[in-house]
Amino acid sequence: MDHDVLPMPESTSMDTVTLRPFVLADLDAMMAWASDPVVTAFMTWGPYTSRDALLAFLRDTVLPHPWFRAVCLGGAVVGAVSVTPTDDRCRAELCVVLARAHWGKGVATAAPKRAVAAVFGDLDGVERVEALVDVDNAASQRALEKAGFTREAVLRSYCVVKGRLRDMVMYSFISTDPLVK
Amino acid sequence: MEPAAADGDARRAEEPAPPLVSLRPLGLDDTDDFMAWASDDRVMRYLKRPLCANREQAVAQIRDTVLGHPWFRAVCVDGGHPVGQVSVWPYADDGGRRANIGYALAHDHWGRGIVAAAIKMVVGRVFDELPGLERLEAVTDVENVRSQRVLEKAGFHNEGILRSYIAGRAGGKAKDAVIYSFLSSDRA
Protein backbone atom coordinates (compact mmCIF):
# COMPACT_ATOMS: atom_id res chain seq x y z
CA MET A 1 0.00 0.00 0.00
CA ASP A 2 1.41 3.38 -0.97
CA HIS A 3 1.93 5.87 1.80
CA ASP A 4 2.00 9.52 0.90
CA VAL A 5 4.62 11.22 2.96
CA LEU A 6 2.93 14.00 4.83
CA PRO A 7 4.94 17.17 5.29
CA MET A 8 6.48 17.20 8.77
CA PRO A 9 5.90 20.31 10.88
CA GLU A 10 9.60 21.08 10.45
CA SER A 11 9.26 21.58 6.70
CA THR A 12 6.57 24.18 7.28
CA SER A 13 8.88 25.91 9.74
CA MET A 14 11.79 25.69 7.29
CA ASP A 15 9.75 27.70 4.79
CA THR A 16 8.99 30.45 7.27
CA VAL A 17 11.98 30.43 9.65
CA THR A 18 14.56 32.98 8.62
CA LEU A 19 17.63 34.49 10.28
CA ARG A 20 18.68 38.12 10.22
CA PRO A 21 21.01 40.37 12.24
CA PHE A 22 19.56 41.90 15.41
CA VAL A 23 18.72 45.60 15.70
CA LEU A 24 18.09 47.67 18.85
CA ALA A 25 14.35 47.65 18.11
CA ASP A 26 14.35 43.88 18.84
CA LEU A 27 14.79 44.52 22.57
CA ASP A 28 11.18 43.84 23.56
CA ALA A 29 11.06 40.63 21.54
CA MET A 30 14.29 39.52 23.23
CA MET A 31 12.89 40.28 26.65
CA ALA A 32 10.10 37.78 26.00
CA TRP A 33 12.54 34.84 26.14
CA ALA A 34 15.44 36.33 28.10
CA SER A 35 13.23 37.05 31.12
CA ASP A 36 11.55 33.63 31.09
CA PRO A 37 13.02 31.35 33.77
CA VAL A 38 11.70 28.25 31.99
CA VAL A 39 13.58 29.22 28.83
CA THR A 40 16.78 30.06 30.72
CA ALA A 41 16.65 27.05 33.08
CA PHE A 42 19.41 25.24 31.15
CA MET A 43 21.41 28.37 30.34
CA THR A 44 24.42 29.65 32.22
CA TRP A 45 22.83 33.11 32.04
CA GLY A 46 19.51 34.69 32.92
CA PRO A 47 16.72 35.13 33.48
CA TYR A 48 17.00 38.87 32.88
CA THR A 49 14.94 40.99 35.23
CA SER A 50 16.11 44.37 33.96
CA ARG A 51 15.42 45.85 30.53
CA ASP A 52 18.51 48.03 30.89
CA ALA A 53 20.74 45.01 31.50
CA LEU A 54 19.35 43.28 28.42
CA LEU A 55 19.76 46.47 26.36
CA ALA A 56 23.41 46.59 27.42
CA PHE A 57 23.80 42.96 26.33
CA LEU A 58 22.12 43.66 22.97
CA ARG A 59 24.20 46.77 22.35
CA ASP A 60 27.58 45.59 23.67
CA THR A 61 27.59 41.87 22.87
CA VAL A 62 24.98 41.06 20.24
CA LEU A 63 25.39 43.93 17.76
CA PRO A 64 29.22 43.72 17.48
CA HIS A 65 29.24 39.88 17.60
CA PRO A 66 30.77 38.05 14.60
CA TRP A 67 27.66 35.86 14.14
CA PHE A 68 24.51 36.51 16.16
CA ARG A 69 21.14 36.21 14.44
CA ALA A 70 17.51 36.82 15.27
CA VAL A 71 15.31 33.81 14.53
CA CYS A 72 12.22 35.03 12.71
CA LEU A 73 8.98 33.13 12.22
CA GLY A 74 6.92 34.93 9.65
CA GLY A 75 7.63 38.54 10.58
CA ALA A 76 8.19 38.06 14.32
CA VAL A 77 11.45 37.66 16.22
CA VAL A 78 10.99 34.50 18.28
CA GLY A 79 14.52 33.64 19.35
CA ALA A 80 18.24 33.90 18.78
CA VAL A 81 21.00 31.74 17.36
CA SER A 82 24.67 32.58 17.77
CA VAL A 83 27.88 30.96 16.60
CA THR A 84 30.83 32.15 18.66
CA PRO A 85 34.43 31.48 17.60
CA THR A 86 36.61 29.94 20.32
CA ASP A 87 40.32 30.36 21.03
CA ASP A 88 40.87 27.54 18.51
CA ARG A 89 40.19 29.08 15.13
CA CYS A 90 38.74 25.84 13.73
CA ARG A 91 35.85 25.63 16.22
CA ALA A 92 32.91 27.81 17.09
CA GLU A 93 30.07 27.25 19.57
CA LEU A 94 26.40 27.39 18.60
CA CYS A 95 23.71 28.50 21.02
CA VAL A 96 19.98 28.56 20.32
CA VAL A 97 17.30 30.12 22.49
CA LEU A 98 13.59 30.37 21.68
CA ALA A 99 10.59 31.97 23.27
CA ARG A 100 8.46 29.31 24.93
CA ALA A 101 5.40 30.13 22.82
CA HIS A 102 7.27 28.77 19.80
CA TRP A 103 8.56 25.54 21.28
CA GLY A 104 7.43 22.27 19.68
CA LYS A 105 6.92 23.68 16.19
CA GLY A 106 10.22 22.67 14.65
CA VAL A 107 11.75 26.14 14.98
CA ALA A 108 14.48 24.81 17.28
CA THR A 109 15.47 22.44 14.45
CA ALA A 110 15.12 24.99 11.65
CA ALA A 111 17.32 27.63 13.34
CA PRO A 112 20.50 25.51 13.61
CA LYS A 113 19.84 24.12 10.09
CA ARG A 114 19.84 27.66 8.73
CA ALA A 115 22.87 28.54 10.84
CA VAL A 116 25.15 25.73 9.63
CA ALA A 117 24.08 26.38 6.03
CA ALA A 118 25.47 29.91 6.31
CA VAL A 119 28.12 30.09 9.02
CA PHE A 120 31.03 28.19 7.36
CA GLY A 121 30.96 30.69 4.55
CA ASP A 122 30.76 33.62 6.95
CA LEU A 123 33.36 32.67 9.60
CA ASP A 124 36.78 32.21 8.06
CA GLY A 125 38.72 29.18 9.26
CA VAL A 126 35.85 27.56 11.17
CA GLU A 127 35.60 23.85 10.32
CA ARG A 128 33.56 22.72 13.32
CA VAL A 129 30.40 24.11 14.90
CA GLU A 130 29.77 22.56 18.29
CA ALA A 131 26.95 22.79 20.80
CA LEU A 132 26.81 21.81 24.46
CA VAL A 133 23.43 20.66 25.75
CA ASP A 134 22.49 19.73 29.30
CA VAL A 135 22.07 15.94 29.68
CA ASP A 136 18.51 16.54 30.88
CA ASN A 137 17.53 18.83 28.01
CA ALA A 138 16.06 16.12 25.77
CA ALA A 139 14.13 18.58 23.55
CA SER A 140 17.25 20.50 22.55
CA GLN A 141 19.15 17.28 21.96
CA ARG A 142 16.43 16.04 19.60
CA ALA A 143 16.34 19.37 17.76
CA LEU A 144 20.08 19.30 17.08
CA GLU A 145 19.97 15.67 15.97
CA LYS A 146 17.18 16.49 13.52
CA ALA A 147 19.26 19.40 12.27
CA GLY A 148 22.04 16.96 11.36
CA PHE A 149 24.36 17.41 14.35
CA THR A 150 26.35 14.41 15.60
CA ARG A 151 26.23 13.45 19.28
CA GLU A 152 29.88 12.88 20.26
CA ALA A 153 30.30 12.64 24.01
CA VAL A 154 28.92 13.27 27.45
CA LEU A 155 31.33 15.62 29.23
CA ARG A 156 31.10 14.97 32.94
CA SER A 157 30.82 17.83 35.44
CA TYR A 158 31.53 20.22 32.60
CA CYS A 159 30.05 23.46 33.89
CA VAL A 160 27.88 25.02 36.54
CA VAL A 161 24.32 25.95 35.57
CA LYS A 162 22.12 27.72 38.10
CA GLY A 163 24.46 26.69 40.90
CA ARG A 164 24.70 22.99 39.99
CA LEU A 165 27.54 21.08 38.33
CA ARG A 166 26.17 19.59 35.13
CA ASP A 167 27.08 16.90 32.64
CA MET A 168 26.82 18.26 29.10
CA VAL A 169 26.33 16.46 25.81
CA MET A 170 28.68 17.60 23.06
CA TYR A 171 27.28 17.87 19.53
CA SER A 172 29.06 18.91 16.36
CA PHE A 173 28.45 19.81 12.75
CA ILE A 174 31.54 19.76 10.53
CA SER A 175 31.90 21.91 7.42
CA THR A 176 31.89 18.76 5.28
CA ASP A 177 28.78 17.22 6.89
CA PRO A 178 25.75 17.00 4.57
CA LEU A 179 23.15 19.70 5.16
CA VAL A 180 19.77 18.28 6.22
CA LYS A 181 17.03 19.42 3.88
CA MET B 1 68.68 -30.78 24.67
CA GLU B 2 68.54 -28.03 27.29
CA PRO B 3 67.52 -29.05 30.77
CA ALA B 4 64.21 -27.54 31.83
CA ALA B 5 64.77 -24.51 34.00
CA ALA B 6 63.90 -25.07 37.64
CA ASP B 7 62.47 -21.62 37.81
CA GLY B 8 61.08 -20.12 34.59
CA ASP B 9 61.51 -16.61 36.02
CA ALA B 10 65.28 -17.05 36.27
CA ARG B 11 65.48 -17.09 32.48
CA ARG B 12 63.86 -13.63 32.21
CA ALA B 13 66.25 -10.71 32.09
CA GLU B 14 66.03 -8.68 35.25
CA GLU B 15 63.65 -5.75 34.66
CA PRO B 16 65.00 -2.32 35.55
CA ALA B 17 63.39 -0.76 38.63
CA PRO B 18 60.62 1.66 37.65
CA PRO B 19 61.91 5.25 37.60
CA LEU B 20 61.23 7.33 40.72
CA VAL B 21 59.33 10.37 39.47
CA SER B 22 59.10 13.67 41.31
CA LEU B 23 57.55 17.04 40.51
CA ARG B 24 58.91 20.50 41.37
CA PRO B 25 58.54 24.06 40.09
CA LEU B 26 60.52 24.89 36.94
CA GLY B 27 62.64 28.05 36.82
CA LEU B 28 65.07 29.90 34.60
CA ASP B 29 67.93 27.80 36.05
CA ASP B 30 66.34 24.85 34.23
CA THR B 31 66.54 26.49 30.79
CA ASP B 32 69.09 24.07 29.33
CA ASP B 33 67.13 21.03 30.51
CA PHE B 34 63.90 22.63 29.24
CA MET B 35 65.48 23.02 25.80
CA ALA B 36 65.98 19.24 25.57
CA TRP B 37 62.25 18.69 25.08
CA ALA B 38 60.96 22.14 24.17
CA SER B 39 63.07 22.26 21.00
CA ASP B 40 62.16 18.72 19.87
CA ASP B 41 59.33 18.52 17.35
CA ARG B 42 58.80 14.81 18.13
CA VAL B 43 57.86 15.88 21.64
CA MET B 44 56.10 19.17 20.96
CA ARG B 45 54.20 18.37 17.75
CA TYR B 46 50.91 17.80 19.53
CA LEU B 47 51.20 20.74 21.90
CA LYS B 48 50.05 24.27 21.24
CA ARG B 49 53.30 25.75 22.53
CA PRO B 50 55.66 27.03 19.85
CA LEU B 51 58.89 25.09 19.42
CA CYS B 52 61.96 26.71 21.02
CA ALA B 53 64.56 27.12 18.30
CA ASN B 54 67.23 28.55 20.60
CA ARG B 55 68.09 29.33 24.21
CA GLU B 56 66.71 32.89 24.00
CA GLN B 57 63.29 31.55 22.98
CA ALA B 58 63.42 29.01 25.80
CA VAL B 59 64.19 31.74 28.34
CA ALA B 60 61.33 33.84 26.96
CA GLN B 61 58.91 30.90 27.11
CA ILE B 62 59.84 30.09 30.71
CA ARG B 63 59.58 33.75 31.71
CA ASP B 64 56.30 34.40 29.90
CA THR B 65 54.38 31.15 30.21
CA VAL B 66 55.91 29.13 33.05
CA LEU B 67 56.85 31.48 35.89
CA GLY B 68 53.36 33.01 36.27
CA HIS B 69 51.50 29.83 35.40
CA PRO B 70 48.78 28.70 37.83
CA TRP B 71 50.18 25.16 38.07
CA PHE B 72 53.34 24.14 36.21
CA ARG B 73 55.81 21.46 37.31
CA ALA B 74 59.07 20.05 36.05
CA VAL B 75 59.13 16.25 35.91
CA CYS B 76 62.30 14.79 37.41
CA VAL B 77 63.48 11.18 37.49
CA ASP B 78 65.50 9.44 40.22
CA GLY B 79 66.21 12.77 41.88
CA GLY B 80 67.90 14.15 38.76
CA HIS B 81 67.40 17.19 36.55
CA PRO B 82 64.10 17.91 34.76
CA VAL B 83 63.28 15.66 31.81
CA GLY B 84 59.79 16.98 31.12
CA GLN B 85 56.90 19.13 32.19
CA VAL B 86 53.32 18.76 33.33
CA SER B 87 50.89 21.63 33.69
CA VAL B 88 47.28 22.22 34.70
CA TRP B 89 45.61 25.27 33.23
CA PRO B 90 42.14 26.33 34.44
CA TYR B 91 39.91 27.55 31.61
CA ALA B 92 39.20 31.27 31.75
CA ASP B 93 35.43 31.19 31.67
CA ASP B 94 34.66 28.60 34.28
CA GLY B 95 35.49 29.88 37.75
CA GLY B 96 38.41 27.47 38.01
CA ARG B 97 36.18 24.40 38.00
CA ARG B 98 37.55 22.94 34.78
CA ALA B 99 41.20 22.73 33.79
CA ASN B 100 43.31 21.31 31.00
CA ILE B 101 46.27 19.03 31.72
CA GLY B 102 49.22 19.02 29.36
CA TYR B 103 52.62 17.33 29.43
CA ALA B 104 55.80 16.81 27.50
CA LEU B 105 58.73 14.46 28.05
CA ALA B 106 62.17 14.43 26.48
CA HIS B 107 62.24 11.77 23.77
CA ASP B 108 65.09 9.80 25.36
CA HIS B 109 62.88 9.01 28.34
CA TRP B 110 59.83 7.74 26.49
CA GLY B 111 58.57 4.22 27.17
CA ARG B 112 59.51 4.09 30.87
CA GLY B 113 56.15 4.98 32.40
CA ILE B 114 57.34 8.40 33.52
CA VAL B 115 54.45 10.48 32.21
CA ALA B 116 51.80 8.11 33.55
CA ALA B 117 53.48 8.28 36.95
CA ALA B 118 53.68 12.08 36.76
CA ILE B 119 50.01 12.38 35.86
CA LYS B 120 49.01 10.09 38.73
CA MET B 121 50.94 12.40 41.05
CA VAL B 122 49.21 15.46 39.57
CA VAL B 123 45.80 13.87 40.07
CA GLY B 124 46.71 13.05 43.66
CA ARG B 125 47.42 16.65 44.60
CA VAL B 126 46.05 19.21 42.14
CA PHE B 127 42.42 19.06 43.35
CA ASP B 128 43.67 20.19 46.76
CA GLU B 129 46.14 22.73 45.42
CA LEU B 130 43.63 24.38 43.02
CA PRO B 131 40.57 24.95 45.21
CA GLY B 132 37.27 24.62 43.36
CA LEU B 133 38.70 22.36 40.66
CA GLU B 134 36.13 19.70 39.71
CA ARG B 135 37.20 18.42 36.31
CA LEU B 136 40.61 17.79 34.77
CA GLU B 137 40.43 17.46 31.03
CA ALA B 138 42.92 16.21 28.45
CA VAL B 139 42.51 16.48 24.71
CA THR B 140 44.73 14.36 22.49
CA ASP B 141 45.04 14.08 18.72
CA VAL B 142 43.41 10.79 17.57
CA GLU B 143 46.80 9.79 16.11
CA ASN B 144 48.58 10.31 19.44
CA VAL B 145 48.04 6.76 20.69
CA ARG B 146 50.95 6.96 23.11
CA SER B 147 49.33 9.87 24.93
CA GLN B 148 45.98 8.08 25.03
CA ARG B 149 47.59 5.04 26.67
CA VAL B 150 49.26 7.26 29.25
CA LEU B 151 45.95 8.89 30.22
CA GLU B 152 44.20 5.54 30.43
CA LYS B 153 46.99 4.20 32.67
CA ALA B 154 46.54 7.23 34.88
CA GLY B 155 42.83 6.50 35.30
CA PHE B 156 41.30 9.11 32.98
CA HIS B 157 37.92 8.38 31.37
CA ASN B 158 37.66 8.39 27.58
CA GLU B 159 34.55 10.44 26.90
CA GLY B 160 34.58 10.32 23.12
CA ILE B 161 35.94 11.60 19.86
CA LEU B 162 35.50 15.25 18.93
CA ARG B 163 35.68 15.74 15.18
CA SER B 164 37.84 18.46 13.65
CA TYR B 165 38.52 19.73 17.17
CA ILE B 166 42.24 20.60 16.95
CA ALA B 167 43.35 23.28 14.52
CA GLY B 168 45.67 21.95 11.84
CA ARG B 169 49.32 23.00 11.87
CA ALA B 170 50.42 25.62 9.33
CA GLY B 171 46.88 26.15 8.10
CA GLY B 172 46.20 22.46 7.45
CA LYS B 173 42.90 20.69 8.03
CA ALA B 174 41.62 20.40 11.62
CA LYS B 175 42.28 17.07 13.37
CA ASP B 176 39.97 14.81 15.30
CA ALA B 177 40.63 14.56 19.04
CA VAL B 178 39.92 12.21 21.91
CA ILE B 179 38.72 13.90 25.08
CA TYR B 180 39.51 12.48 28.50
CA SER B 181 38.50 13.58 31.97
CA PHE B 182 39.35 12.94 35.59
CA LEU B 183 36.93 14.36 38.16
CA SER B 184 37.54 15.36 41.72
CA SER B 185 35.06 12.62 42.62
CA ASP B 186 37.04 10.02 40.62
CA ARG B 187 39.72 10.00 43.32
CA ALA B 188 39.28 6.64 45.07
Automatic annotation (TrEMBL), chain A:
- Source domain of life is Eukaryota
Q: Which PROSITE patterns match?
A: GNAT (PS51186)
User: Mind telling me what this protein is named?
Assistant: N-acetyltransferase domain-containing protein
- The residue ranges of the N-acetyltransferase domain are 17-167
Instruction: List, in alphabetical order, the Gene Ontology terms for molecular function in this entry.
Output: acyltransferase activity, transferring groups other than amino-acyl groups
Q: Which PANTHER family match?
A: ACYL-COA N-ACYLTRANSFERASES (NAT) SUPERFAMILY PROTEIN (PTHR46067), OS01G0358800 PROTEIN (PTHR46067:SF7)
Tell me which InterPro entries the record gives: Acyl_CoA_acyltransferase, GNAT_dom
From TrEMBL, chain B:
Against InterPro entries, the record matches this protein to: Acyl_CoA_acyltransferase, GNAT_dom
Q: Classify the source by domain of life.
A: Eukaryota
| Domain N-acetyltransferase span(s) in chain numbering | 21-178
Q: Where is this region: Disordered?
A: 1-20
Entry's PROSITE patterns?
Answer: GNAT
Q: Which GO terms describe its molecular function?
A: acyltransferase activity, transferring groups other than amino-acyl groups
Pfam families annotated for this entry?
Acetyltransf_3 (PF13302)
Please report the name of this protein according to its UniProt entry: N-acetyltransferase domain-containing protein
UniProt source species: Eragrostis curvula (weeping love grass)
